[in-house]
TrEMBL record:
Keywords: ATP-binding, Biotin, DNA-binding, Ligase, Nucleotide-binding, Repressor, Transcription, Transcription regulation. Acts both as a biotin--[acetyl-CoA-carboxylase] ligase and a repressor. One of its GO terms (cellular component) is cytoplasm. PANTHER family: BIOTIN PROTEIN LIGASE, BIOTIN--PROTEIN LIGASE. One of its GO terms (molecular function) is biotin--[biotin carboxyl-carrier protein] ligase activity. The gene is birA. Its EC number is 6.3.4.15. The keyword Cell inner membrane does not apply. This is Bifunctional ligase/repressor BirA. Biotin binds at Q115, R119, G120, R121, K187. It comes from Cohnella phaseoli. The keyword Transcription applies. Residues 20-39 bind DNA. It catalyses: biotin + L-lysyl-[protein] + ATP = N(6)-biotinyl-L-lysyl-[protein] + AMP + diphosphate + H(+). It is an enzyme of class 6 (ligase).
Length: 323
């Protein structure tokens, strides 16, 4: 008997006692085998109550991510099907880059419970405490030219926002250009794309996804909570991280297929519909200087079209977005 089948059985009957006799009959194993597997699950952090004459009851799941729990939830073809789950690493970006260089296939995923040197955009660090968030990197090998890489950043933001909206429908999620997800004006996740190219074509892209799922107030360094919030604090409930990971991978794979089949146009429409940047006076700090104006939409490449006070339009491809 695998642990997965016992776990699945207990989860199916959540809140109820199931007798050892029934489990051994349904799963076709001895009662000693059931007991041994219960002990193993407990060692992994599951809490299983055993009451004489009533049987077993699952009362708590580990706060750690486990493959036993995650794998049965995956609904994807390739995304997350090669999966490395680490307790701690400096950055999942580094781990996945190594695998990419060794020829790992598209869809390979690295997840870590904790990052000691998580990276954010613009050279910033990313707070990644143990067991609290979703810190993961996904490998893509898109057959597109290097200048189109920003489109994947926008695609990732749409995928994340759809997955979170599906899991936590009470939250209103907006995308701030290019790919920050906000709830009530505060950042709940971040996306970092790092790519390698050969002859102007992308050989691979490492998509880093950081979701502040279950961080508590004390997990944030001073001052950061003015700008950031976790899904748990925003929604008032602990987030099931493995459900959310499965939803993100499903949305991501679906949108990526759509992108490969139909190009950027449908992604652009979805992004624009969720944007909180469009139509609002915005300051953009570009490497060439500050641009102030009204963002009107995306261009074909994924750049932000900004209407300037003199009525002309300027497209911005890389910038820090102010207020
Ligand atoms: C941002 O600055 O908004 C992007 C943050 C990206 C964080 C994720 S967490 C998983 C992956 N590993 C990293 O070191 N960074 C990304």
């Amino acid at each position: 008997m695998s642990k997965i089948s016992l776990l699945g059985f207990l989860e199916e009957r959540a809140g109820q006692y199931v007798s050892g006799e029934e489990i051994s009959r349904e799963l076709n194993v001895s009662r000693t085998a059931v007991w041994k597997q219960v002990r193993k699950l407990e060692a992994e952090g599951y809490r299983i109550e055993a009451v004489p004459r009533l049987g077993y009851r699952l009362t708590a799941k580990p706060s750690r991510l486990t493959l036993q729990e995650l794998l049965p939830k995956l609904r994807t073809t390739s995304f997350g099907r090669r999966l490395t789950l680490l307790d701690v690493t400096d950055s999942t970006q580094n781990e996945l880059r190594k695998l990419a260089e060794q020829g790992a296939p598209e869809g390979t995923l690295v997840i870590a419970e904790q990052q000691t040197n998580g990276r954010g955009r613009m050279g910033r660090s990313w707070v990644s405490p143990a067991g609290k968030g979703i810190w993961m990197s996904l490998l893509l090998r898109p057959p597109v030219p290097l200048p189109l890489a920003p489109q994947l950043t926008l695609l990732a933001a749409v995928a994340l926002s759809r997955a979170i909206a599906q899991q936590l429908p009470m939250l209103e999620i907006g995308i701030k250009w290019p790919n920050d997800l906000l709830v009530g004006g505060k950042k709940i996740s971040g996306i970092l794309l790092e790519s390698a190219a050969e002859d102007e074509r992308l050989s691979y892209v490492v998509v880093g996804l950081g979701i502040s799922a279950n961080l508590d107030v004390e997990d944030y360094p001073e001052g950061l909570m003015d700008k950031a919030i976790s899904l748990k604090i925003a929604s008032g409930a602990t987030v099931d991280r493995s459900e959310l990971i499965a939803a993100v991978l499903e949305q991501f794979e679906q949108l990526y297929k759509l992108y490969l089949e139909q190009g950027f146009a449908p992604i652009r429409t979805l992004w624009e519909a969720r944007s909180v940047t469009l139509g609002k006076q915005t300051e953009l700090y570009t490497p060439q200087g500050t641009v102030v104006g009204l963002p009107r939409g995306l261009d074909d490449m994924g750049g932000l079209r900004v209407e300037l006070p003199d009525g002309s339009t300027r497209t911005v491809y890389s910038a820090e977005v102010g207020s």
